[in-house]
From TrEMBL:
GO biological process, one term: protein catabolic process
Keyword Protease assigned: yes
Source organism per UniProt: Methylobacterium frigidaeris
Protein name, per record: Lon protease
Keywords per UniProt: Hydrolase, Protease
C-alpha cells in the first residue's frame, strides 16, 4: 500500500468517525458544531434555550452568570445570546482569572457566536467564521480539516444571506443542506486553484544554446503565435456546429442520411433522417453584459445567482452552460429565471416537469414499444435544428423514486456523464448531446440522489425582497403584455396608488406567483373601475 492510499484510507475512516449525525437530540459542543452537528430540532431558538439549561456557570464571573440567567429565563433571542458572547469573550481575555475559567468562558463565547450566527447576527457570523478558519489551520487531520473548511464556507454563506437581508432566522436551520451546497462550491474553487497552480509552476532553467525551457511541452518550432492560431482553429471548428447523429442507416427503412423524406416520417429512420450526418449550427455566444443587465433589471434579488451562472458562459465557443441546479422555496421564480437565462443566451428552451413523472421517458424509450420516442433533448434539437438547446428540468426532486419503469434521476445521471456519446434507446445509436444545457430546479435537496447532485453546480435561489418588488412588478407587466398581445400604450405601468397597494398586500418572503396574482388583480380593477361612456 502506497503512502497516498494509506492517507486516503485513514481520511475516510476519520471522516466517518468525526461526522456528527444529521439530527441532534441534545445541545452539541462547540467542536461538534464546527464539525457540522445539527442544532437541537434544527432550530437556533430551541437550541439556545436547551443549551443554556445545561450550562454550568458556577465559578464564572458575575457578568457571564447574569447574561446566562437572562437566557435561562426564556429570553433566547439574538440580543441575549450576543450579550452572553461578549461577556464571555471579555472574561476569556482577563488574565487575572484562572486558566480553567478563561477556557470555559472561551468555550461559551465561541458557542454563543455560532448560535448568534444562525439567529441572523452578522458580526457574530464573521467571528465564528474566523474561529473556524483558525481551527482548520491548526489541525493536520485531513478529515477534520475538511469538516472545518466546510463549516467556514457554511458560515460565510449564512453571513452573505444576512447581509443581503435574505436570511430568515425563524426557518429551520437544516445544516446538512447548506453544507452540501457549499461543499460543491469549495470543489469548484479547488479546481480553479489547481488550474492556476499548474500554470504558475516554477519554470526550469533556460538552455544557453537554444533558449528553450526544458519544461515546455512543445518542440522548439511551436511558438505562442502557433498555439494561438491552433486554438482559434479549434474554436472555429466547434463554432461550425456539431454532428448530433452520425447516421440512421442501421434502422429499418429507406430514408437517406441528411435528406428530409417527403410526406413526413412514420419510422424512427424517416423521423430523424434530416439530422443524420448533418453538422447542426451552434448558437454563438451572446453579449453577456447585455444579457446580465436585462436579467438583473428583472430579478435584482437574484443578481449574485445570475452572475454565477453567466460566468459559466464566458469564453465558450458557443452558447452553453454546465449543469446548474437552482434550489429555493416554491414560487421564488426559479423556473422563470432559468428559462429567461437560457433565452438570453439565444437557446431554444424546453421545460420538462418531473412532478408526477414515474418513468425515465426523459432519456428516451425503446422503439420496441408502441409509445417509443427519442430523448427529450434530441426532440428539442430536432425542433430547433440547432445542436445547442436548453432543457429546464423542473422540480427534479419530485420525480418518483421507483425504478419499475425506469427512474428520471438515474436516466439524467447517465445522460450527463455521457453527453458526447449518449446512446439513445429509440434510435439505437450514439448521439452527441454535448451542446445541450441542463438547468434544473428544486424546492429542496431532499429527494435528489447524491450522485446526481454532484453533477450540478448547486445555487440557492433567494426569495424576493421588498426592494426588488418594483422591478419584479414591471417584469410581470412585460409578461402580461406579451401574453395578451398588447403594448405599453394599452397596458401601461402601475401608477403610484396601484403599485403601493400591490406592495402593501404582498407578504414578506411571498412568492412571485402571488405577486403576479396581485398585479393581475390591479390590472383587472382598471376595467371594473373605469368610467363607462
Amino acid at each position: 500500500m502506497t503512502d497516498a492510499s494509506r492517507r486516503a484510507q485513514r481520511a475516510r475512516a476519520n471522516l466517518r468517525a468525526l461526522t456528527p449525525p444529521d439530527v441532534s437530540h441534545a445541545p452539541a459542543s462547540v467542536a461538534a458544531l464546527r464539525n457540522g452537528a445539527a442544532l437541537l430540532w434544527n432550530n437556533p431558538f430551541n437550541d439556545a434555550t436547551a443549551w443554556a439549561g445545561t450550562l454550568d456557570t458556577v465559578g464564572l464571573p458575575d457578568a457571564v452568570r447574569s447574561r446566562h440567567a437572562t437566557l435561562t429565563a426564556g429570553f433566547a433571542g439574538t440580543p441575549a445570546v450576543v450579550a452572553l458572547a461578549e461577556a464571555a469573550e471579555e472574561a476569556a481575555r482577563d488574565v487575572s482569572l484562572s486558566k480553567d475559567v478563561r477556557e470555559r468562558c472561551e468555550e461559551i463565547g465561541s458557542r454563543s457566536r455560532l448560535l448568534a450566527t444562525w439567529l441572523g447576527h452578522y458580526p457574530s457570523a464573521l467571528v465564528a467564521m474566523h474561529e473556524a478558519d483558525l481551527a482548520a489551520g491548526a489541525t493536520v487531520d485531513d478529515a477534520e480539516r475538511r469538516l472545518l473548511l466546510t463549516t467556514r464556507a457554511e458560515l460565510s454563506y449564512v453571513a452573505h444571506l444576512i447581509l443581503l437581508g435574505n436570511y430568515d432566522a425563524n426557518r429551520d436551520a437544516v445544516r446538512t443542506e447548506v453544507r452540501k451546497i457549499v461543499w460543491g462550491d469549495l470543489g469548484a474553487e479547488g479546481e480553479l486553484v489547481k488550474f492556476w497552480q499548474s500554470l504558475d509552476r516554477p519554470r526550469g532553467a533556460v538552455r544557453d544554446d537554444t533558449g528553450h525551457d526544458p519544461r515546455d511541452f512543445a518542440p522548439d518550432w511551436v511558438d505562442d503565435d502557433f498555439l494561438a492560431d491552433l486554438e482559434t482553429a479549434r474554436a472555429a471548428r466547434r463554432a461550425e456546429g456539431l454532428v448530433v447523429i452520425e447516421s440512421v442507416a442501421h434502422l429499418p427503412g429507406t430514408a437517406k442520411d441528411g435528406v428530409r423524406p417527403t410526406g413526413g416520417g412514420a419510422t424512427p429512420r424517416a423521423e430523424f433522417a434530416s439530422l443524420a450526418g448533418v453538422r447542426l449550427r451552434c448558437v454563438p455566444p451572446p453579449d453577456l453584459p447585455a444579457v446580465r443587465a436585462r436579467l438583473v433589471s428583472r430579478y435584482p434579488h437574484a443578481a449574485a445567482v445570475i452572475d454565477r451562472i453567466l460566468s459559466l458562459a464566458v469564453e465558450q465557443p458557443y452558447a452553453r452552460l454546465r449543469p446548474v441546479l437552482l434550489v429555493g422555496p416554491p414560487g421564488c421564480g426559479k423556473t422563470r429565471l432559468a428559462r429567461e437565462i437560457c433565452e438570453g443566451l439565444g437557446l431554444a428552451v424546453t421545460v420538462y416537469s418531473c412532478a408526477g413523472v414515474s418513468d425515465a421517458s426523459l432519456i428516451g424509450t425503446s422503439r420496441q414499444w408502441g409509445t417509443g420516442r427519442a430523448s427529450v433533448p434530441l426532440q428539442a434539437i430536432k425542433r430547433a435544428m440547432t445542436a445547442t438547446v436548453a432543457i429546464v428540468v423542473d422540480e427534479i426532486e419530485k420525480a418518483a423514486e421507483s425504478r419499475h419503469n425506469g427512474n428520471a434521476q438515474d436516466g439524467l445521471l447517465s445522460m450527463l456523464d455521457h453527453a458526447s456519446r449518449y446512446h439513445d434507446p429509440y434510435l439505437e445509436c450514439d448521439t452527441d448531446l454535448s451542446g445541450v444545457t441542463f438547468l434544473a430546479t428544486a424546492n429542496s435537496l431532499a429527494g435528489i440522489t447524491d450522485p446526481l447532485r454532484d453533477r450540478f453546480l448547486v445555487l440557492a435561489m433567494p426569495a424576493p425582497t421588498r426592494e426588488s418588488l418594483p422591478a419584479l412588478i414591471e417584469g410581470i407587466l412585460q409578461d402580461l403584455r406579451a401574453e395578451l398581445g398588447q403594448d405599453e400604450a394599452w397596458l401601461p405601468a402601475l401608477d403610484g396608488e396601484e403599485q403601493a397597494a400591490v406592495v402593501a398586500n404582498h407578504r414578506p418572503g411571498g412568492s412571485i406567483r402571488s405577486l403576479r396574482r396581485l398585479v393581475e388583480a390591479a390590472v383587472a380593477s382598471r376595467t371594473v373601475l373605469s368610467p363607462r361612456h
